[in-house]
Design a protein that fits this description.
Number of helices: 5
Strand content: 15-25%
Helix content: 25-40%
CATH topology: Rossmann fold
Shape: globular
Length: 171
């Protein structure tokens, strides 16, 4: 199965990016690709016409070709980052997410942060008619506090707990 990963943070090596990297590491049986949202211009409705920027064409093609998409986002002001929202807006008129299985993940410092960002992300995905297969709110402050979450290995990859593996279909 081909899975496209999209990190809502445009910061290189952000904790959200590392989370996605770790999920890919934990499930090598899937064909993972990653699209760096920082490559996309800010969405402007009047610019959503031919000729589109190469990065927009590439973004739409990668979403279209993926069998599933994992969206992971930090929380900025209890919402998704502007660059992430802009990337989703580039899919508004082209329809690549229609019916596509997606898994939204929030990666916030601690509960309840992330709840509104998850709601906002899900509203956008619903507007794009994506098939939301579940929601996965994760919290950074629980990295080592609870055995039933996840922790970092010596290579700074996040190792998933048994319950998260089950969510992803692992036994």
């Amino acid at each position: 199965m081909s899975v496209l990963c999209c990190c809502g943070s445009v910061r290189a090596r952000s904790s959200t990016y590392r989370l996605l990297e770790s999920i890919q590491y934990a499930f090598p049986q899937y064909d993972w690709t990653y699209f760096p949202l920082a490559r996309l211009p800010i969405f402007q409705p009047e610019e959503d016409q031919a000729p589109w920027p190469e990065s927009v064409i590439d973004w739409r093609q990668q979403v279209s070709q993926a069998q599933a998409v994992v969206f992971a986002t930090p929380t900025y002001l209890e919402n998704i980052p502007a660059a992430f929202k802009s990337a989703l807006e580039w899919l508004t008129t082209s329809g690549e997410l229609t019916g596509k299985p997606v898994l939204p993940i929030t990666f916030a410092p601690h509960p309840p942060r992330g709840e509104r960002a998850m709601q906002s992300l899900c509203w956008s995905l619903q507007a794009l008619e994506a098939n939301i297969i579940g929601q996965l709110p994760l919290f950074q402050n629980e990295l080592e506090l609870k055995r039933d979450r996840y922790h970092f290995d010596k290579d700074h990859r996040i190792l998933l707990s048994e319950s998260l593996k089950l969510l992803c279909g692992e036994q």
